[in-house]
Amino acid sequence: MTLTRVLTAAILIPLVVALIWWGSPALVAGVAAVVLVLALYEFFALSEKAGLRGYWRWTVLCSVGVIYVQWAAARVETHPLVGGLELVQDAGRLGLTLEWVFLIFLCGVVAIALASPRPIAEILPAAAASAVGMIFIALPFSYLVRLDATTGRVGKQLALFTLALIWAGDTGAYFVGRSVGRLPMAPLLSPKKTWEGAIGNLAASLIVAAFFARWMNEELFPLLLIAALANIAGQAGDLFESAYKRAAGVKDSGTLLPGHGGMLDRIDSLIFAAPVVWCYVGWLNWRGHG
To answer: Which of 64, 221, 251, 258 is deepest in the core (most CB within 10 A)?
Structure first.
C-alpha cells in the first residue's frame, strides 16, 4: 500500500506543481472545477449512504459558479483618474458575486424542495447535505483558485505553499504516526490518527514555511504562523471528513486515486487550509497600503 501511495504521489505532485506554476489562471480554475465536481460526487455518495440524499446536481452546478466567481474576481481592473480617484472595472464576473451565487443556490434548493415528490421528512436532510457541500467543500476549496489568480507571481507561490504544507504535513503525520505514534487523537473518528502524528504533521508544515519564506523573500514569522494555522485547519478538515465517512460506514470516499482513496480523501485537508492562507494575502495587502 505504501508503494502504491508513493507512486501515485510521484505522478500527481509534479503535474499539479507544473499546472500551478505554468498554467494560466483560467486553466487552473478549470482543473479545480473538475476536482471539485469529483469530490462533491463522492461527498454526495457518502451522504446517501448516511441516509442524506442531497440535491447533488444543483449543488454541483452552483459550486462551479463559485469557482468561476473566484477566478473572475482577480480580473477586476483599476484605472487611475484625475484627483486621486480610481475607476474599478469588473472585467469578468458578469455582475456575479459569491453572495449572488449563494442566494441563487438557496432559492434553487427551496424551489427543488417544493417541487420534489420526496416525502417531507427527507426535504430538510436533503437541503442540509446540499448546504454542507457548498459551505464546507466548494467555498473553502475555491480559495485555492483565488490564490492562484490573484497578485501574480506571489499568488502562484502562495498556492504552491498551500499545497506543499498539506503534502508535507500528510507525509510527516504518516511516517511519524507509524513509527512512534502511541496516543490516539480521535479514536471514534479515525483510530489510526495519533497526537504524535499530528505533531509530525505540524512540524513538516513549519519546515515548508521556512523554505517558502526564503524563496518568496518574505518575513519568516508571519509565514510560520499562517502555516501553523493552515495546518491545524487542514487536520480539522481531515477529521471532519473522517466523521462523515464513519457515518457512511466506509473507509475511503472513493477509489479514484490508488493508495489515497478518493478525490475527497486527497483534498480534505486542503479544503480548510486554503481560506486560511488567503487571509495571508489580506495581510500582505494591508501591509502594502499601511
So the answer is: 64
Angle at 149 between CA 148 and CA 155, to 5 degrees: 50
Residue 65, CA atoms < 13 Å, CB-side half-sphere: 19
- Alpha helix (H) residue ranges in the chain: 2-22, 25-49, 56-73, 98-115, 120-132, 139-149, 152-180, 195-216, 220-248, 263-289
Contact indicator for 268, 157 with CB cutoff of 8 Å: no
Name the helix (H) or strand (E) containing 80. Answer: strand 76-80
For the segment 239-286, what is each residue's pLDDT rounded down to a tens digit? 999 998 988 999 889 888 887 889 999 999 999 999 999 998 888 766
| Alpha carbon 1 to chain centroid, angstroms | 25
Give CA–CA dist 156/145, Å, rounded.
10
The answer to whether 43 and 133 have CB atoms below 8 angstroms apart is yes
Which three three-digit cell numbers place residue 29? 480554475
Return the closest-CA partner of residue 269 out of 154, 181, 150, 162: 162
pTM over 0.85, yes/no: yes
CA dihedral 105→106→112→115, nearest 10 degrees, is -150
Q: How far apart are the first and last CA of the chain?
A: 51
Q: Which helix (H) or strand (E) is 90 found in, with range?
A: strand 86-90
pLDDT in tens, 115-152: 988 888 889 999 999 999 999 999 999 999 999 998 67
Contact yes or no for 213/176 (Cβ under 8 A) = no
Distance CA(230)–CA(224), nearest Å, equals 10
Report yes or no: 243 and 189 within 8 Å, Cβ to Cβ. Answer: yes
β-bridge pairing 86-90 and 76-80: antiparallel
